[in-house]
Amino acid sequence: MFALGPLSFAAPLALAGLLALPALWFLLRATPPAPRRAVFPPLRLLMGAPDDAETPQHAPWWLILFRLLIAALIIIALARPVWTPAAVETETRPSLLVLDNGWTAASAWDDMRREAERLIDQADRDGRVIAVTGTADSGNAPLPVRLGNADAARRQLETLSPQPWPADREATADRLRNARDAGQLDGPLAVTWLSDGLNSGDAARLAQTLSGLGRLRVIEPDSGRAALGLAPPEAAADGLTVEVRRAATDLPRTAGVTALGADGRAIARRDVTFEAGSGIASATLSLPLDLRNRIASLRLDGTSTAGSVHLLGDSWQRPRVGLIELTASEGQPLLSDLHYIQSALAPRAELIRGTLDDLLAAEPSVLVMTDDARSDDPRIADFIDNGGVLIRFAGPRLAARGDALLPVDLRQGGRLFGGALNWEEPQTLAPFPDTSPFAGLPVDRNATVDRQVLAQPGSATPDRVWARLDDGTPLVTAERRARGWIVLFHVTASPEWSDLPLTGLFPRMLQRLMGLAHSGSASSPANGAWVLDRALDAEGQLAPAPASARPIPAQAFETTTPGPVSPPGLYRLGPASAALNVIARDTRMVPLPRNLPGAEFAGLDGPRVSQFDAPLLAAALILLALDILIALALAGRLPVRLGGTAAAVLVAVAILPGAPMADAQDTDPDAYALEAALSLRFAYVRTGNAQTDGRSEAGLAGLGREITRRSAMEPDAPMGIDIETDPLLFFPMIYWPVSTDVQPLSPETAGKVSAYLQSGGLIVFDTQDADVAMLRTGAPHPGLVTLLESIDIPPLAQIPPDHVLTRTFYLLQDFPGRFSGSPVWVEANPDGASRDGTSGVIIGANDWASAWARNANGEAMVPVEGGDRQREMAYRFGVNIAMYALTGNYKADQVHVPEILERLGQ
Q1: Threshold 0.85, pTM exceeds
Q2: CATH architecture of 95-225+594-606
Q3: Nearest Cα to 6, choosing from 568, 610, 424?
């Protein structure tokens, strides 16, 4: 490579072509321009003849210089010039490229990959060998790290992708040291570490290994592309408190948290804001209990990583639990059995204390009965038969006499340990059996039992015993009764008979029992292990379990960290479910320290090497085209005036490709009408919000491309309209995003919209919030109510299964967008309208435009909850809408095809 300061040439021998420019000068001078031809009559010849009698013998000097410039541009472009900024040094050593590809790198992976491709291309131009490796285990045998050509490095880069678990930098350091000892990484190297910007505790060891191989350069993403993590939520009295974490930076940032149900429908949404320099932001999702128990996952908007999703298993359900008490108050509430039960269950359930009449009116899922409560009320048996769970605690009354609401028969008198007439020591708990819902909980050796009630021999079968003492006597027994459960603790709920209520094991046992209220059956796995049901992929979407996944023993589940054999996701243990997430309660996101051994830091947007070969070749081609026009003009085959005009147009096209285009409606109303009327276009209502309008335009543009690809329609680019001033009749369909604060329409505008609907137009109203506003307030969307009150809209109904919209092009029964599950509304009786049986409005909340939106590179602009499958279904619904807007109810007429064919046959 030949260098002139910061300017270098990858193919310097091509510059030798510049030596031919003087010879080209003389060659061009020796070539005169073609003579002009004049056609009779002689007067026309005399009028065009010059005043002097001189005839040019060579091309004009300015044309020669112009052509020499074209030749010089081509020669310099073939020399592949490269401009290297002062901050970027020219590298001659072999390269090693290390990429963080754990879940924290997913948000900036596209930029990291492009940077890696640029570094590989640079090594290819320089003729240097390069090696590529990642830091996260993929579950397969890692490929050897060895230096090779750029093609081998590109193939290695293609095998790397973000993984839904943290990177293992310590294992990467060991692998690199082994490669160095094996001679696969010889000599000093130029080492580049494309980092995720976070310190995982083993970053210093990896940096030390990398700096030992050569000069280390660490490139990390900026704060706008840094990873965000969703921590485990905290149960609050009126909902959930969510906490979003990041590496502390100096820049503020806002993120949205959405709570989703098992069907993917949004239940609630809140924004969280990071202050400058803060690494934690929190917010509370306030929801009634019934909606709260429907939450299956929490997701961060605008980022698609495994850490931006937090799955909720059975443990996060908050059932309504009734604590039966005899009177409204007790003399010593802090010493009562109910006090210990309430303290244990308060973080995980909605507790109600009162008489049985009060509790049954509140429709609880679980009833808790202490020894003092009456059990002869037949309504308790009915509650169990209908699927309720009854949890009982023993005491002196049960020791004296049992009743019918017991899982086992009891022996009278109870059993006493450590008494004056009993020399047995207080008993501790035995490990829980694998068939118990308590399987996997560590036994607290401080939980000793002084007294208990005993089961009659033969009644406590193994399937009914969920916990035992060390001597084998049952401590917790249970029985399935009709659709419900009866669970009996053979001790009191207070410390009177045992120390169990004073330990941390007591609330965890009760929490496991709350799962009976959700699943309806006890956990009874065959081998006491949690089995992966659905895994989280690197983009935060639920996917089938990978082949590398292995069952997790129940006793190890709570201490398991995500990895190839234990991916994050939803696990099953019998009918119970639990979630393994990449962000635990003690996970901290700390930026990389700046004192890593031998490391120099840079950003992904730092100084870059610039290449000029492609721009120079493009300029040469444009000048060649201009030279052809000049030659034609000088030869008389193109009028000079026309040639000058063409040249000017060519230069304008070359120089001003990015000049902004003014909207037609901003300059000339007639031009706007012509542009809208002479081609098929869809329109969107401009709201004044740049982000919303941009998504609407990109969504309709993306839908138009899909319609062109899939059907005979070829819609042009969509147009934005001002609903107050612009005419509507040119557009077959108008997409109208509706915000909660939309202003009422003026009478003139309302009349214009009503006339558009009556004349056959179609308006798609989209609140884009998955009905969150309605769920939060219990009333219809306020912005939608404001608009529809101004417009003459007939009664509405949800799309029936046989509606024409379900079969205009694709056969559909779901109509998802960015969200799914929200109902879609159309006119209840379109046959009575003047539109020949078609509805003039489609109303939904699934944010269809965001699902349709793609950027100029064809990449999806907004993540979709259900992944690529849901995005495809959103496109199909969009195609159906477009067909419906253009063809009306022609599909409905197909029901008459058999009769028509029969008549034709007759």
Answers
A1: no
A2: 3-Layer(aba) Sandwich (3.40)
A3: 610
